[in-house]
Amino acid sequence: MAFIRQYRDSDFDNMSHIGFRLPKKNHQCRATLPPSLSASEPARRLAPYIWTHQYTHLSPSTCFVLDDGAGRAVGYCIGCPDVAALCAAYPRYVREVLEGRGRANGDVRLTRPSPPAADPSEPDAAAAAAAAAAPWIDPDTGRISELALAQLAFSAQRLLVDGHEDLLAEGYRGTMHIDLLSEHQGRGWGRRLIEVLVKSMKARSDDEEEGKGETHKGIWLGVGRENEKVVPFYEKLGFYVKERVVKTSTIIMVRDY
């Protein structure tokens, strides 16, 4: 019988999997990827390193899996209560997972692909850094750029801060991701996973507020336009679409603690 438990390091491969092994390919990919990503070999290979493994590696106490009853993770709800803290610890993730485990198994093939840091004293430093980012679509191939994907994986700033500054400033310091294999959807597991995660993150946030005097207002998540159909599901769980001055291609939803 399936049940929810905390993430264990032995779940690493199943977390990468949450899907299927492609025929004649020596890597795993996630069944829950949207079409634009699942059609890209680099995206299938790197997706877990962009949206999954940094949370389980750096904040395992706020990462939960749905165990199928035989020890196999068939879904997960993962996150961190404080994006700033995750960013501060991110070099360890780069060293131990991206340049360690990921490189060893052949998933991570580019070496520290982030562009050179701009001189912060220059007035156009931010614009220069943005211009140095690889385009999402490789102009030579017309496909999602592996360099752009790797730049996200190697940079917590690009992945979690850029474009989300307003959320962090308002106190939405936590973020999360959830994925379930299709055969385990529609059974209430998604709701239960989210409630377990939010309870855990709120407890961690309360402790940090008391110790550091910081305000933790709640949690945010991003919903791709291709997956807009899940918005009502999150709304039933207390999330709501955040109206923002910043306009992005991703729907941002928040839930207050």
UniProtKB/TrEMBL annotation:
Residues 115-257 form the N-acetyltransferase domain. One of its GO terms (molecular function) is acyltransferase activity, transferring groups other than amino-acyl groups. Transmembrane segments: none annotated. It holds the Pfam family Acetyltransf_1. Residues 105-125 are annotated as: Disordered. InterPro entries: Acyl_CoA_acyltransferase (IPR016181), GNAT_dom (IPR000182). SUPFAM superfamilies: Acyl-CoA N-acyltransferases (Nat). This is N-acetyltransferase domain-containing protein. It comes from Beauveria asiatica.
